[in-house]
Amino acid sequence: MQTQTIVLIIAAFIIALIVALFQYLHKAKQRKKNTFFFAFLRFLSVFALLLLLINPSFKQKKIFTEKPKLVVAVDNSLSIKHLDQDQNITEFIKQIQKNNILNDRFNIVYYSFSSALHDSLHFSFDQKQTNISKALGDLNQVYKNSIAPIVLVTDGNQTYGKDYQFSSIGYKQSIFPVVSGDTTTVFDTKIQQLNINRYAYLKNKFPVEVILTYSGIETVNTRLEVKSGNSVVYSQPISFSLNNNSKVVNFTLQANRAGVIQYTARLIPLEKEKNTINNTKTFAVEVIDQKTNILLISDIVHPDLGAIKKSVESNERRSITISRPIEIKNLNLDDYQLIMLYQPNTRFRGIYEKLNTLRKNYFTITGSTTDWFFLNKIQSKYSQEITRQTEYYIPRFNSNYGTFLFDDIGFENYPPLTGNFGEIKLNTSYDPLLYRTISNIETDEPLLVTVEQDGIREAVLFGEGLWRWRAQNYLNAKNFEGFDDFFGKLIQYLASNKRKSRLNTISESFYYGNASIKINAEYFTKNYEFDRRGNLRITIKNKDTEATQTIPMILKNNSYEVDLSNISAGNYDYTVTVSGENISRSGSFTVLEYNVEQQYLNADVTKLKQLATNTNGKPYYLDQMDSMTKDLSEDQRYKAIQKSKENVVSLIDWKYLLAIVILLLAIEWFARKYNGLI
Fold first, then answer.
1. What confidence tier does 346 reach under pLDDT thresholds 50, 70, 90?
2. Are the C-beta atoms of 75 and 93 separated by less than 8 Å?
3. Which of 25-34, 136-145, 663-672 has the lowest mean pLDDT?
4. pLDDT tens digit string along 603-646?
5. Distances in Å between the alpha carbon of 61 and those of 3, 157, 498, 644, 651?
6. Residues with Cβ < 8 Å from 305, sequence gap 6 or more?
7. Rounded CA gap, 339 and 677, in Å?
8. CA distance 184 to 601
């Protein structure tokens, strides 16, 4: 307490004494036997009021013992139930809860985890994904400033995320894994992984890669089959041995019909196998039956037109129409996914106006007859210095081109293109695919560029003579595939099938049962501005059971989203509607049956032991409760700590003082009243 406060308290004592003596002794006409009692009551009440005004502070010191925390994290994934360990784990947790030794030594905190960490012990053992690394990382962050060893009850099987045996290096807390599940090696064959593209084009072949594994010591023979419906579309005999315990099988399948085609890959189980679930995997491919229509507009006759037509139509999923500018009024540009403009001149003015209105992608090819006066004026993305002279340009491939994947097909050995002499200026961001080489001098001037601005894609080739390139490709390789592939990738990048709509839905054609199933929707005002005020709902219908459900969609960033991860495998139709608007969008998707948690045969003891080593912990099994209790209770790293806490308490916070003042004044008043002094 400060000296100034002590002086004020002494002064308050004197003032209270003076007030009491003045009122009951100095002013009293006669002294009675209870006068000093009244004076004492007045002194106490005045002194207490003055103390409240002074409000002195006192230091209060508390000493307490803080026990270390013990974190118990329990795996709540489906693999626990699949390995028949759910009852054992539940019983193990009950033993911890009743363990007096551990509860006296630690403050025990319980968590469960699967794909995420939860601060509860609600066990369902039905979660389809496990991310042990994320759960441990979250716990390490939560308890980074305290002592909190972690008892991790799990089978050690992780379906996704970082490998926890490596990510755990450097964790502050020691981890004590409790292994649940069979630890013996089980005789088993399984489909370890299946790699496939999600999309294929009709009448094309698509590749499939299947990785097969075997655990056992005997030499065994089986067969890999792939079925579509009841038909076997691929079959191959497979043999395994102790030293040859894995196979990578690559093959192709034919996309014969459009839509989502489901396949089942099955490795025929052996007689001794206990787990046959992991011998089968279902996959799907969306076969696209979509023909790309291209319009090529030219006001001149040139060999390039024939080369372009043959290159485009080398893929039967594409078609091209060649037209003159004056014929455009009879065509609907919306029927075409790409417009190609060959050596534009003033007759192309109406075409450019339509392209700007419709916001179509286009491919411009310039050459010796291009009207650069017109072209420089009609658009602002690029311009050419006008010299009325031509020059030859040898192509040079840009290996740093990043808009899409592209390989050099030997451009530097191709004949030169003919273009206009003069500097080219590009007034927007662009990605050069080919540069110009002039008279064996390499320059940074572009020959072929791609541009994307305001959602519109354009490619510009500053030279004519593509027919020579296609002919040169044939001379080099005895086929046109290299050039046609080069031209096809450009078309694939530029071709657009999107049409404007106020409501768009974004979904996959199929989902795997272990993956997140999310459908997004975009809703726009009549000015095509994203509208955050919409009330969107989605109706899901199971085609097999006819069951329907309607779910509101949640606004998330710049789209509306719904998470359907809990729906069962099957075929579904959906319709998205907007309340108060007469617009809707429909679609369909398929959920494939697949549960990665059922692919495991036993606990991953090796990784759990390494996890314990990395964090200075120790592994245990479910039947080693006594051993774990003894080790944790005797571990000198986890001692209770005696701490002191000092609080500064103001007298005004002591509510009883005000009650004492009121009580003193009340006693004085009633006593005076009783004695007839009032």
1. very high
2. no
3. 25-34
4. 788 889 999 999 999 999 998 999 999 999 999 888 887 777 77
5. 21, 50, 73, 7, 16
6. 296, 298, 322, 342
7. 112
8. 9
Using CA atoms, how far apart are residues 171 and 148, in angstroms rounded to an integer?
Answer: 11
**Main-chain dihedrals φ then ψ at residue 85, nearest 5 degrees:** -115, 5
* Order of all β-strands in the sheet with 175-179: 117-118, 107-113, 69-75, 150-154, 175-179, 620-621
Q: Which two tokens stand for residue 408?
A: 């050099």
pLDDT, greater one: 501 or 85? 85
Half-sphere exposure of 395 (CA within 13 A, CB side): 25
Look at the block and give the residue holding tokens 């658009």: 379
What's the pLDDT at 603?
79
Can you give 142-155 as a three-state secondary structure string?
Answer: HCCCCCCCEEEEEC
Residue type, 654: W
CA distance 590 to 595: 15
Taking the complete model, does pTM exceed 0.70, yes or no? no
Would you list the DSSP string of 651-662?
Answer: GGG-HHHHHHHH
Report the C-alpha gap between 549 and 237 in whole angstroms: 45
Rounded to 5 degrees, what are φ and ψ at 205?
-100, 145
CA distance 463 to 343: 9
Listed residue (379, 306, 311) closest to 344, CA to CA: 379
Q: Three-state SS for 308? A: helix
Q: CA 268 to CA 364: how far, in whole Å?
A: 56
Comparing C-alpha atoms, which of 564, 560, 613, 558 is closest to residue 585?
Answer: 560
Token reading at 327: 């014929």
